[in-house]
Amino acid sequence: MRVELTVNGETCETDVWAGESLLTTLRDRLELPGSKNACEQGECGSCSVLLDGELVCSCLVLAAQADGHDVVTVEGLAENGELHRVQVAFVEAGAVQCGFCTPGFVVAAADLLRRVPDPSDDEVREALSGNLCRCTGYQKILDAVHEAAGR
Length: 151
Ligand code: FES
Ligand code: FES
Fold this sequence. Notes:
Layout: E1 2-7, E2 10-15, H1 22-29, E3 48-51, E4 54-57, E5 70-72, H2 85-93, H3 102-115, H4 121-127, H5 139-149
Parallel strand pairs: 1-5
Antiparallel strand pairs: 1-2, 3-4, 3-5
């Protein structure tokens, strides 16, 4: 089947198979490998994207469900060649180790700061509770989100 989506502000048309996830479409058909595939079960958050402004696990959304909708991936957060403040803060705070979880955390954190400009520690933990990291111990990720909030 053919789907048409708006991805990071651009209209994209592609063929997909009926059971194909949005994550697969983004990575394998639209050449946007930023969203990662770590579990493909909705457990890790590494595939997080915004679908019509709502944070979703793109591994749990069918590409067909996204037909006609607006998708923002981690690649779409930078503006005019400038990294998003969350991306800058992750680098500066040392919140990236292997980096596999990072795109999902960055999308989830950017979504939080759009809704809650100065979140409490509990609000950050709650907002990122769907994202797993096996490397950092999370503290530097929390530091990065607070640092980004202060920018
Ligand atoms: S790959 Fe989607 S939640 Fe893990
Ligand atoms: S930095 Fe390796 S999983 Fe998070």
